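Suppose you are handed a protein chain with no further information: no name, no annotation, nothing but its sequence. What can you learn? This example shows the usual starting point.
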Amino acid sequence: VPPGRQKIDVYRRLSVAATSDELTEVAGEIRDRFGPLPPEAEQLVEIKELQLFAFAWGINSIRMEEGRFAVLGYKNDKQVKALERRVGSDLRLVDPGVAYLLMPRMDMNGPDTVAHLKSVLRP
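A reasonable first move is to predict its three-dimensional structure. Written in structure tokens, the prediction is:
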């Protein structure tokens, strides 16, 4: 995407996508206009999709701790307890508003981490 107004418009459209379908549509339009997405843009789309999945569960933050846990900040106990029932013992609710998700491996890289989190949080 060339610098300037077009680039800003692309970022804006990606940031306001409210559903996976909208995100897929925007990414498709970008590919049609500018060709294949570079790896950085693909990663941006993947992270946005993860964000949409997290929001669907009432999760408002995700951070990694000690390479072994994804720490999920949430605001809705009911939604996270439903996620806990679905995920099982890998998700631990330890404090109000904080859950720890055990990652399958400590050596996961960024794209693998995002892919795993998406698989867990996919509605």
